[in-house]
Specification:
Layout (H helix, E strand, L loop, with lengths): L1 E2 L20 H5 L3 H7 L3 H6 L23 H5 L18 E3 L4 E3 L1 H4 L1 H4 L8 E3 L16 E5 L4 E4 H5 L7 E2 L1 H6 L6 H7 L14 E5 L3 E5 L11 E8 L2 E8 L3 E5 L6 E8 L10 E6 L6 E8 L4 E6 L9 E9 L5 E5 L3 E4 L7 E10 L8 E6 L6 E8 L4 E6 L9 E8 L6 E5 L3 E4 L7 E10 L8 E6 L4 H7 L3 H5 L4 H5 L17 H10 L23 H10 L3 H13 L4 E7 L4 E4 L1 H4 L3 E4 L11 E4 L7 E6 L7 H8 L29 E6 L14 E9 L4 H10 L2 E5 L7 H5 L6 E7 L7 H11 L6 E4 L4 H18 L9 H7 L3 E2 L4 H14 L5 H8 L5 H15 L8 H21 L4 H7 L5 H36 L3 H13 L4 H16 L6 H5 L3 H10 L4 E4 L8 H14 L6 E8 L5 H9 L14 E7 L2 H7 L3 E7 L5 H4 L4 H15 ...
Parallel strand pairs: 1-12, 30-39, 33-35, 33-36, 36-37, 37-38, 41-43, 41-44, 44-45, 45-46
Antiparallel strand pairs: 2-3, 2-4, 5-6, 5-7, 8-9, 9-12, 10-11, 10-13, 13-14, 15-16, 16-19, 17-18, 17-20, 20-21, 22-23, 23-26, 24-25, 24-27, 27-28, 29-30, 29-34, 31-32, 34-35, 40-42, 42-43, 47-48
Length: 2000
């Protein structure tokens, strides 16, 4: 049978079964000490009373139920001595019935303090304690069983006594009372009999969870047997009843636990025998799943699982292991795993694991075997790697010495399958890798059992192939198409300082930009990836290598130059890692020039200046062999640096990105130099030395190592184990002395090593330099000493140039070996190799620029200044200058092209070869000049010390100035060849031969080569040459290419060129034995992404020679030279840099004054360059703040200089510097530190210098953005031409009228003329409309409340508003025009106010016209009102009579015949006439009215005027011709003096008065022909015309008496004519006569009405006839503006766009006609000539294609349409039946267009009873017929002149007003003023003429003058006029008397060729006409042709 716990007799109380523990509530309240006691080991728990079961003796019988620990020691103390169950030694004082534990005083305390224990029941401990406990359950007797009459425990009550009658409450009430035996006995019943015991217990099967037991049958017991079996463990006991058998299987036991089994015989009545007992341990299960979790070479981890039965059982494990032949080792662990270490790799082990319980029970062992892995390789190192392979080395695995093994190498890039190979050696090479890829490489050991070790791992990022590396940096394209210097220097976003994130693609550009501005931190530019997986960090050496590989030779040169200045090491041998080719960078190094002073020359202060590649400087090389713990580059940096001046010459590991693995730069050999300064306290080495540094291990670069050994004086090898790499040293060649540099901390040098170094490698023991226990400074001193010895003693000095042979022998390429370079070098050498004496060479090979060119330059300036004319006539003197120029040019032409120039002109068309040639020329010439200058300086020094004769020193000083020979001299010769050829005929072969030269030079400029703008020797600009070059440049680039110009001015040798070079990265010469001479221009391209922002395509940088040059200081005109240069460059520039050394140096005063003069001149012509003052060599970072006071003082000085300069320039309105230009002392002043950081020559560029210059450059770029100019190369050319022509004038009295200003002024005039004409046209239309309204007042406007004066007032208000609006519109247009982003607008800024004033004047004049016209219209209307009223009254009377007669006749019953009706009408007519009072208009005395008007006009004059008026009768005036009687006596004298004619001025005045009389006569005729009545406004208009003309020509000086007689004469004529007109008007408008004329009309209407005939047809015809003259009048008024529009917008309109254009067209026509008479009219009577010429031009224009007729028809059609529309609208929308109202409405609709005569309209309205609809239809038809009739009339009229004269708006007069201008003429030659606008402050003309053309002559000889005033004003000639008081006055100061005239000096002989030709052609005719002798015509005038004159005219007026 098998029973489980709790089946029968084992039922458990439900309250105790909640968690499966019958004592849970007891456990919860148990004393913590007791709980800890119950957890002790098995022996403890077995002996403790709290264990819950009794100990079993070996006899398995109950011996002593209760056994206390230590009972033997306590028995002697008496029966009451009970030990404490907790501590076992101390006597218990209390017994807890709840815990069933005895406590001593110490341990019972918790029952009084802990709340849970306070609920327990404590009793006294007594000796009979055992009697108080249940003997079975050992619990307190708390229940009394009434059934069994005994005390039982609670457990008994629910087991054996279940269902019995029990008492619990009474016991509980007893509390802690003690029950003695008697009390208990009283509760018990009688005792029972005892049953026999079972037999001995036997265990047949014991497992981990069950026990099978059996026992014998009780003796003496028969029948059925029952047994009670109990078992328990650890205080828990179970029981069951067994029937019918003596065995049972108990399961559900805990494994590994000791169980006690009890069996008792049970009777039927429940009685039991005594118990028999036996104990047994359940089996401990073994662990499961034993396996190896981790295995290594010397350790492995074993893991297993616990037995399922023991998951919750505390246990530990015993693990033991051993290998074959070794002892077993054991270990305990509580974990289910164990790592065993200290094992032997590759060995088999047996491992066993068993479970051990807390009671010491142990399970069976679980065993397995395992082999340890082989040990892994050690110290895996990537020895070397490339883009596609890597060499690996590793150490032998530990412990594997006696075990066979090999290795496996595996690699993977994490994207592709892994690859591997096996190898026995401890090294291997991985191949086939992908460039630029990260690999994981592992190596493991494999033993003979094919077991693998743990892998050792490393990562490798393969190098990029050169192609991929270039791709990553964005340089792929440039690897084939090399980067050029131009591309690098172009202006881009980096230049503007924009925020730019550095990317791998932008990294090269950032570096180059920084390098070009010589930033010493250029190598620190880096790309910082945001992604950790991005491996594109770039080592600076890789970046430099890549850029050199991608750059052409010229960019390489510039990079090397800039790197050298920054004290960076530069490439000597450049590797290509793909091709494994190396290049010697000879060409790149070719341009480095260094100055130094060896210590040997320190006392003499002499310096040596040499080109590096040819210098004999010993080279010391530093290389690495294998590993070296020393940083070679850092050591070298310290080697070359003073402690106080450290430079990172070589890139090292601790620099920015210096630790990034190199990709392509391994094998790079860098070189740097040390140069002494001659100061022994500073110099590290006393002589120069070159230091080369090979990057990488020389084992990989044996060729380079061999090269260095052959070219170096010494080679220093950094190596820790030199003897390990002996083979490479054994293969070396060369004479270089070897040194070994070793770190003793890494490698000890033994005697054997030294011996080997000496014997095998020829390394002296003293050449082994060991770094022992010393710091770097001491070690570097040792190295410096060693290198210093080499420089002093070594004979091996091989110039870099000579290294080329060694390189070629070694298979190393040389960059100079290209065909282009060698061919160019050969050509350059042919030119320069034979030059010994540069002065002689220039005389022989460059003859055109010698004395001839200098004399030509002097001639040019003399032609402008005419200082040496003496007493000669100016034009004759100029002619002689011209003749001399021709002679000099002919002399130049006789020179044949020299061999040197042929070589220059024959240079290759290939850009590359051409660039090489120019560079070779520059190098050779610089070398030559440097040598010559050095020799001359030595001689000069010797002369000064030993032979101080001034003459010899002066000669030598001149030689030093002339000894320089540069490429500019050759280009200058080309310029002279071209200029000389330009004077030849165009078809000359010699000229054609030179035509390609400008293109050659333009291409050089485009390639970035500086071109000479100002000849530094002759101080002149070859304008034809420069013009041709710039023109060719314009064709080479986009024709719309815009440029900005920046220039620099400053004292010589203040760093101007260096500033520009740093700022723009350009190559202006700064140190070639000479300073900049003249001015050079250089072109820099702007990147396409910035063109729009900067508004330009190129930046032109102009570098100038220093002002106040010592070489020029000895010349008398040095100040003038500086003025010329300053004015030129400031005038050309958009931004000018004034460079000053130190802070506000006083030596700059003169320079500032020069600059201020130039700024004033430029401000005068509207050009305002931005200016920056740069203070150089200011080291203090607070200089800007500290110099605030200095800047304020500088501004004060500038203001003073401005005032002084303004007085000299005669611009007194300019009082301060800010009047000239926008200048802010804070933002326009820059403080820049010194160039060098330390003591040259070893000082790098100061970082502060490059940063300050960079900030300055950014500011300049912002200036360019703000700049308003928008100019192209042609604009720059024109400025250059005009500026240079202007600056050549003496004293710089600046009258600047160049072609650009002329163009800008012409455009402004053209625009203004358009605005002006639109205003005039609009106002004319308004005036016509207003006059029409006035004329129709009372007809179309029937408002009786308004008078004509009210209408006038309203119209005057409207006119004022319209005029104001028109004026504002013109002024707004002017403002917008000057705000345009057009650079030319600024040139005419000074004319803005003139045109603003002109707009005001135009408004004022138009307002006067409006007022006069409207008032005149009102007066006319008022004058006609009386007449119209009379006529209207008569018409109304007659209409009333006719209607009355009609009524009378209709009342008669008989029909009346027409005859009878006529008789009735005649009777009525006569009767009515007798009734009407015919009172006509009063007759006026016009003469009297005119006299009153004249008196009023002269009322403000004196009594003398009044007396003249009184003496004259106006009726008699004007009957004879007007004669000017006399002029002032001084005018007679002047006429005699100038013209040999006393009456010259009277004659001129007579002509003037005759012109006025003619104008007034035309006006009188126009008034008379209008057939209107006389009005006072007619005389007033005449007098106004006279006053305006006299005022306009005030220079005529009309005296008062002449003016009065002239007005009397004109008014007399007008009075008579106007009287006739008035009388005729009276007669024509007699009321009776007018009425009689209407008699037949009245009769006809009467008859029609009587017979009820339809009047529609007749009345419509009458109305159409009334409208026809109004329509023709309208068309006539509209034609005039159309004609002007035709002239100004049609073909040939450009001739009338401006007054200058008009002058050109007139002069051109005169030249084409070639008639003297026309010239005579033009000169003598310019105004009349212009009027007639304009009239003829208008007639000619209108004659084409019937344009006048077309215009008439156009306006006719317009007005007819308006009429028909008015009729149609009134007919359609009107419901009026009254025909009169209908007609009235039509008239109102047309009231602003047509003038309706009141009497004619009244005639139509009278007796009109027509039907409105029918009338409208007929009227429409008649209007159409009228149109045809008028059109026919227009077609038949052919006389255009007559038609033009009949127009009220005369186009010829308007054209004359706009083209004639102010009427002023030149005071000397009478050329008319061409200034635009009504109000201009200054008069000028484009072309002046010889004075003889106007009849001026020499008083003594009577010979006509040939002098031209434009020449006179630049000469020393004088003039005499009445203004000078008959004294001679210099022409130069003509503005003293003629301040409102600007006469620009004629700097060119050709400028006045037009008038010279006219004078020469008509000399005899002019003399005869003016009664003078012919002029002495200069010879060059006589040869002028018609074409010359036309060409001159076009050039002057800038016409094509």
């Amino acid at each position: 049978m098998s029973y489980h716990q709790g089946v029968e007799g084992g039922a458990i109380h439900k309250e105790r079964c909640k968690d499966g523990s019958p004592y849970k509530d007891l456990d919860e309240t148990m004393d913590p000490d007791m709980r800890s006691c119950t957890t002790r080991g098995p022996p403890e728990r077995a002996e403790s009373i709290s264990s819950g079961f009794l100990s079993m003796k070996s006899d398995r019988s109950m011996d002593f139920p209760l056994h206390f620990k230590g009972a033997d020691s306590l028995r002697n103390k008496g029966p009451g001595a009970v030990p404490c169950d907790i501590c076992s030694e101390v006597q218990a004082v209390k017994f807890c019935q709840t815990c069933s534990v005895s406590y001593c005083e110490t341990h019972v305390k918790k029952h009084y303090t802990l709340p849970k224990l306070q609920r327990h029941t404590l009793v006294e401990v007594t000796g009979d304690l055992e009697e108080r406990l249940c003997q079975e359950h050992h619990r307190a007797l708390e229940v009394f069983c009434r059934t069994d009459q005994k005390l039982i425990c609670l457990e008994c009550s629910v087991t054996k006594h279940k269902g019995h009658d029990t008492i619990i409450e009474e016991i509980k009430q007893a509390g802690k009372q003690t029950f003695d035996r008697d009390q208990c006995r009283g509760l018990k019943l009688a005792s029972i009999d005892v049953l026999p015991l079972p037999g001995e217990i036997q265990f047949s099967s014991v497992t981990s969870g069950s026990v099978s037991l059996s026992w014998g049958s009780p003796e003496g017991l028969t029948g059925p047997q029952k047994f009670r079996v109990t078992w328990g463990c650890d205080g828990e006991e179970r029981s069951l009843r067994v029937e019918d058998g003596c065995n049972v299987e108990i399961d559900g036991l805990q494994p590994g636990e000791k169980y006690q089994f009890n069996v008792a015989t049970e009777g039927e009545d429940g009685r039991q025998s005594r118990w028999i007992s036996a104990s047994v341990f359940t089996v401990v299960p073994a662990p499961m799943d034993l396996h190896i979790k981790q295995s290594g070479a010397t350790s492995f981890t074993v893991s297993w699982s616990k037995a399922e039965e023991l998951e919750k059982v505390p246990q530990c494990f015993l693990i033991s292991y051993c290998s074959l032949g070794t002892e077993t080792r054991s270990a305990n662990t509580e974990d289910s795993y164990r790592t065993l270490s200290g094992l032997q790799p590759g060995t088999q082990y047996t491992i066993s694991v068993s479970t051990v319980l807390n009671n010491g029970e142990q399970s069976k062992r679980l065993s397995t075997t395992i082999c340890t892995n082989p040990s892994p390789p050690g110290n895996l190192v990537i020895w070397s790697y490339s883009a596609t392979s890597a060499k690996l080395i590793w150490d032998h695995p530990d412990g594997m010495e006696d075990i066979l093994h090999h290795f496996r190498v595996t690699w993977s890039d994490n994207t592709s399958p892994s690859e591997s190979f096996a190898i026995k050696e401890s090294c291997g090479i991985v191949t086939g890798l992908t460039p630029g890829t990260e690999y994981t490489i592992t190596v493991c050991t494999i033993d003979k059992r094919n077991m693998e070790s743990d892998p050792v791992c490393t990562t490798l990022h393969t190098k990029l192939t050169l192609k991929l590396f270039m791709q990553k940096l964005g340089l792929t394209q440039h690897f084939e198409e090399k980067l050029s210097l131009n591309a690098v220097l172009s202006i881009d976003g980096l230049t503007l300082g924009k925020n730019h994130t550095v990317t791998p693609q932008s990294l090269p550009w950032c570096f180059l930009k920084e390098l070009m501005r010589m930033n010493v931190s250029a190598r620190d530019v880096k790309y910082t990836p945001t992604d950790k997986k991005d491996h594109m960090k770039v080592n600076p050496l890789d970046l430099i290598t890549a850029l050199f590989l991608c750059s052409d030779g010229f960019l390489q040169q510039e990079m090397v130059q800039k790197m050298s200045m920054c004290q960076f090491a530069v490439p000597l041998l450049l590797p290509n890692c793909d091709t494994e080719q190396t290049t010697l960078m000879l060409w790149a190094l070719r341009d480095i020039v260094k100055k130094f002073r060896p210590s040997s020359q320190a006392d003499s202060k002499s310096i040596i200046e040499e080109r590096i590649v040819v210098s004999d400087i010993p080279m010391v090389s530093f290389v690495r062999l294998g590993e070296s713990s020393l940083s070679k580059s850092q050591i070298l940096n310290k080697l070359l640096s003073n402690p106080q001046q450290y430079n990172d010459t070589f890139v090292h590991h601790d620099m920015e990105c210096g630790d990034v693995p190199r990709q392509i730069s391994d094998g790079l050999v860098e070189i740097s130099w040390y140069f002494p300064c001659g100061n022994r306290n500073i110099d590290i080495f006393t002589k120069p030395v070159a230091v080369a540094n090979l990057r990488g291990d020389i084992r990989s670069f044996e060729t380079k190592f061999s090269f260095l050994c052959q070219t170096s004086a010494a080679v220093y090898i950094f190596c820790n184990e030199l003897d390990a790499y002996s083979e490479i040293l054994e293969r070396r060649t060369g004479k270089a002395e070897l040194f070994q540099v070793v770190d003793s901390q890494k490698n000890k040098i033994t005697e054997n090593t030294l011996r080997k170094l000496t014997t095998e490698f020829s390394i002296k023991p003293t050449n082994v330099i060991v770094k022992e226990n010393e710091n770097d400074a001491e070690f570097v001193k040792t190295l410096q000493s060693s290198v210093g010895d080499i420089t002093e003693t070594s004979p091996n000095k091989l110039p870099i140039e000579n290294m080329a042979d060694v390189a070629r022998q070694s298979g190393i390429l040389v960059d100079e070996d290209s065909d282009e370079c060698q061919s160019a070098r050969k050509t350059a050498n042919e030119i320069t190799r034979n030059i010994k004496d540069t002065i002689k060479f220039k005389d022989e090979q460059l003859p055109l620029q010698g004395q001839i060119w200098k004399e030509l330059s002097q001639l040019e300036k003399e032609r402008c200044r005419l200082r040496k004319a003496g007493g000669q006539e100016i034009e004759h003197y100029k002619s002689s200058l011209k003749k001399r120029e021709i002679e000099l040019r002919e002399e130049q032409q006789r020179f044949e092209m020299t061999k040197a120039i042929k070589n220059i002109t024959g240079m290759s068309s290939s850009k590359v070869e051409r660039s090489y040639f120019l560079k070779w020329m520059q190098i050779n010439l610089d070398n030559l000049s440097r040598q010559n200058l050095s020799d001359l300086r030595k001689q000069y020094k010797e002369l000064c010390q030993n032979h101080p004769e001034k003459k010899d020193i002066a000669d030598l000083d001149r030689q030093m100035c002339d000894c320089s020979l540069g490429l500019e001299h050759f280009l200058r010769e080309l310029g002279q060849l071209y200029e000389a050829a330009c004077s030849l005929p165009e078809d000359s072969p010699q000229r054609k031969q030179m035509e390609h030269l400008p293109g050659l030079c333009a291409q050089m400029l485009l390639d970035g080569f500086p071109i000479e703008l100002v000849d530094g020797d002759a101080s002149n600009i070859p304008l034809k040459w420069i013009s041709a070059v710039l023109t060719e440049l314009h064709t080479l680039v986009d024709s719309n290419s815009k440029i900005r110009v920046v220039t620099v001015l400053g004292v010589q040798s203040t760093g101007k060129s260096t500033l520009l070079n740093t700022m723009f990265g350009v190559q202006f010469a700064v140190s070639s034995g000479r300073c900049t001479r003249g001015a050079f221009m250089l072109l820099i391209k702007v990147n396409k992404d910035l063109k729009e922002e900067l508004k330009c395509d190129f930046i032109m940088v102009i570098d100038t020679e220093g002002l106040k040059s010592p070489e020029l200081a000895q010349l008398d005109d040095s100040h003038e030279h500086d003025n010329e240069l300053a004015t030129l460059v400031i005038g050309l520039s958009d931004v000018t840099i004034i460079n000053m050394s130190m802070e506000n140096s006083t030596e700059m005063k003169d320079i500032l004054q020069i600059a201020v003069h130039a700024f004033i001149r430029m401000q005068e012509v509207g050009k305002k360059p931005i200016c920056h003052f740069v203070h150089q060599n200011v080291s203090d970072m607070s200089a800007h703040d500290n110099n605030m006071r200095d800047r304020k003082k500088l501004l004060e000085q500038l203001n003073e200089m401005t005032q002084a300069a303004a007085r000299m320039e005669k611009k007194e309105n300019i009082t301060k510097f800010t009047d000239v230009m926008e200048y802010d002392p804070d933002t326009s002043s820059w403080y820049i530190p010194g160039l060098w950081h330390g003591t040259p020559p070893m000082a790098p560029v100061n970082a502060g210098y490059s940063e300050a210059v960079c900030d300055f450059k950014k500011s300049l770029m912002q200036d360019f953005i703000k700049c308003q100019s928008n100019d192209d190369i042609t604009h720059f050319l024109k400025w250059t031409q005009s500026l240079w022509e202007s600056v050549k004038f003496e004293k710089f009295i600046f009258s600047f009228r160049n072609s650009l200003v002329a163009d800008a002024y012409s455009r402004l005039c053209s625009e203004y003329n358009g605005w002006e004409w639109n205003f005039q046209k609009e106002m004319y239309s308004w005036i016509v409309s207003s006059e029409t309204k006035m004329s129709n007042f009372g007809i179309t406007d029937l408002n009786p409340q308004r008078s004509i004066r009210d209408v006038l007032k309203y119209l005057m208000i409207e006119a004022s508003e319209k005029l104001s609006l028109g004026e504002k519109e013109i002024q707004d247009n002017l403002v917008k025009y000057f705000e345009k982003q057009d650079g030319h607008v600024s040139l005419v800024e000074k004319y803005r106010e003139d045109f603003m004033s002109s707009a005001k004047t135009l408004r004022r004049e138009t307002q006067n016209t409006v007022r006069n016209n409207l008032h005149g219209a009102v007066e006319i209307k008022e004058g006609m009102t009386e007449l119209n009223n009379i006529k209207s009254s008569q018409a109304k009377t007659m209409e009333r009579k006719v209607l009355a007669l009609l009524q009378t006749c209709r009342q008669k019953k008989t029909d009346l015949s027409d005859k009878k009706l006529q008789e009735e009408f005649e009777s009525m007519w006569e009767e009515t006439l007798s009734e009407i009072n015919f009172s006509g208009l009063p007759r006026r005395d016009v003469a009297q009215d005119a006299f009153l008007m004249l008196s009023g006009n002269l009322s403000r004059r004196g009594s003398h005027v009044n007396s003249i008026l009184v003496r004259n009768n106006l009726v008699d005036c004007g009957k004879t011709d007007f004669v000017v009687k006399s002029v002032h006596w001084w005018q007679n004298a002047e006429g005699l003096a100038k013209h040999m004619d006393h009456y010259h001025h009277r004659k001129k005045l007579q002509v003037f008065c005759d012109d006025i009389i003619t104008q007034c006569h035309e006006l009188i005729t126009q008034k008379v022909e209008s057939k209107t009545d006389y009005h006072d406004t007619d005389i007033k208009e005449l007098l106004n015309r006279i006053d305006e003309t006299i005022k306009q020509y005030k220079k005529r000086k009309v005296n008062e008496e002449c003016e009065i007689h002239l007005k009397l004469h004109i008014c007399g004529i007008a009075a008579r004519e106007f009287q006739k007109m008035h009388n005729q008007f009276i007669v024509s408008n007699d009321p009776r006569m007018c009425l009689e004329q209407s008699k037949n009309k009245y009769l006809t209407d009467f008859k029609d009405l009587f017979h009820n005939r339809d009047q529609c047809l007749k009345k419509a015809e009458e109305f159409s006839k009334l409208v026809q003259p109004a329509v023709q009048d309208y068309v006539t008024k509209m034609i005039g503006p159309d004609v002007v529009d035709e002239m100004k917008t049609g073909k040939g309109s450009e001739d009338y766009s401006t007054r200058t254009s008009f002058q050109f067209s007139v002069l051109k026509q005169l030249l084409t006609d070639g008639e003297y008479e026309k010239y005579r009219k033009y000169i003598r009577n310019y105004e009349k000539f212009v009027k007639d010429w304009l009239f003829d031009q208008i007639v000619q224009q209108l004659s084409k294609d019937s344009r006048l007729e077309k215009s008439e028809k156009k306006h006719l059609s317009e007005i007819v349409k308006i009429i028909t529309d008015a009729i149609s609208i009134r007919k359609t929308h009107s419901t009026i039946e009254c025909i009169k109202t209908f007609i009235q409405n039509i008239c109102s609709a047309l009231g602003e267009k047509l003038v309706f005569p009141k009497d004619a309209l009244d005639s139509v309205m009278i007796l009109n009873s027509a039907n409105t609809d029918q009338f409208a239809d007929y009227l429409t038809e008649f209007v159409g017929e009228m149109k045809q009739t008028v059109t026919s009339e227009y077609e038949q009229r052919t006389d255009i002149k007559e038609r033009l004269r009949s127009l009220p708006f005369k186009p010829q007069d308007n054209m004359f007003t706009s083209q004639f201008g102010c009427g002023e003429v030149c005071p000397f030659c009478s050329a008319p003023c061409e200034a635009g606008g009504k109000e201009h402050a200054k008069h000028f003309t484009s072309i002046h003429r010889p004075q003889g053309v106007s009849g001026w002559r020499n008083l003594k000889t009577n010979v006509l003058w040939t002098n031209i005033c434009s020449s006179d004003v630049i000469s020393d000639a004088t003039f005499r006029t009445s203004l000078t008081g008959d004294k001679l006055h210099p022409y130069k100061d003509y503005q003293t008397y003629y301040p409102d005239w600007i006469i620009t000096g004629d700097s060119s002989i050709e400028a006045s060729d037009y008038w010279k030709y006219v004078m020469a052609t008509f000399n005899e005719t002019i003399a005869k006409d003016t009664d003078a002798l012919p002029a002495d015509i200069p010879e060059d005038w006589k040869v002028l042709t018609h074409d010359d004159a036309m060409k001159s005219l076009k050039n002057i007026f800038n016409m094509k």
